[in-house]
Structure formats: C-alpha cells, structure tokens
Write a structure and sequence with these properties.
Blueprint: H1 10-15, E1 23-26, E2 30-34, E3 44-48, H2 60-80, E4 85-89, E5 105-110, H3 126-140
Antiparallel strand pairs: 1-2, 2-3, 3-5, 4-5
Helix pairs in contact: 2-3
The protein binds guanosine-5'-monophosphate.
Residues 10, 21, 33-37, 91, 97-100, 119-120 line the site of guanosine-5'-monophosphate.
Length: 144
C-alpha cells in the first residue's frame, strides 16, 4: 500500500484546471465544488490547495486555515438547500473510506429522518449539478 501523495489524483487535476468541476468558491487556501456523486442534494467538497493525501499527513497550519472555509460552505449550504442540518465527513485511507487521495471535506445537507444516499455510487446529471452549484454560489454571495 502506498502512502505518498500522488499529484495525478483527480482533485489535484481539478485544482490545476485540467478537468472541469462545478466550482462554487475559490480563494488562496482552497476550492469548493459539487460532488459528482452526491449523497444528498447540495453535497459539496472543500479541497485545500496544499497537497496532502488526507488529514493524517496534512500540515496542521493548512488544516487550521481550511476549517473556516468548511464552516462558510456549510452555513451557505444549510441556507441554500433549506437543510435541517449539515454532516461534515472526512475519510482517511482506503480502510477509512477514502477514495480520492487528496485531502477534502464533504459538506452534506441533511434532513430529519432522511438517510444519506450511498457514498460515491450514483453520478448526478450535469445540469442538476450546475443548478445546485448556482444555488450554493448565490447563498455564498449572500443571495438566496
Ligand atoms: P472520499 O471517498 O475520497 O472521501 O470522497 C471522494 C468523493 O469525490 C466522492 O464523494 C466522489 O463522489 C467524489 N468524486 C470522485 N470523482 C470526482 C470528480 O471527478 N469530480 C467531483 N466533483 N467529485 C468526484
């Protein structure tokens, strides 16, 4: 089993602009975009720009810098998707449920009594992801 950072992982490619995503936010620290296989409407990912496989090898300063952005996306997602709550998920290594080996935080709108869909199983149509990204972006800008 490898435990080194692979710069060819899919999120590194998204960060470099080599493959597209439905981006909702970007600053010097991180980007946020819609998960292509959402477990709930509005499921977004916050991906720090600094390279690490996951939380275990991350620079503590990079972790500290990204958490306020996770909070910002979570607050906007709760508003945009009129959620009852938000789950933040973060997986480490395959045994821990991780499938993409660049640190990221899942921000998932939740509703009373509604279970999450399966992790990384059903691809959402692109037009729906685009509409959800627009909604989340608007909430981030202070709109509806
Ligand atoms: P992990 O299991 O590593 O915590 O989560 C990886 C997440 O990335 C999964 O929820 C999966 O749906 C999502 N994902 C995988 N490939 C892509 C991709 O190419 N683009 C986007 N936006 N999300 C992806």
């Amino acid at each position: 089993m490898t435990s080194t950072y692979d710069a060819d992982n899919i999120f590194a490619k998204i960060l470099r602009g080599e493959i597209p995503c439905h981006k909702v936010y970007e600053d010097d620290i991180a980007i946020a975009f819609m998960d292509v296989m959402p477990q709930s409407d509005g499921h977004a990912l916050v991906v720090p720009k600094s390279p690490s496989r996951n939380l275990l090898d991350a620079d503590p300063a990079a972790l500290a810098a990204v958490i306020p952005l996770v909070q910002k996306i979570a607050t906007a997602a709760k508003k945009a998707f009129e959620a009852d709550g938000i789950s933040i998920q973060q997986f480490n290594e395959g045994a821990g449920g991780q499938t993409v080996f660049h640190l990221h935080f899942h921000v998932i709108p939740r509703y009373e009594g509604v279970p999450l869909k399966s992790h990384g199983r059903d691809m959402e149509p692109d037009d729906i992801l685009a509409a959800h990204a627009e909604k989340l972006s608007a909430a981030l800008k202070g709109g509806k």
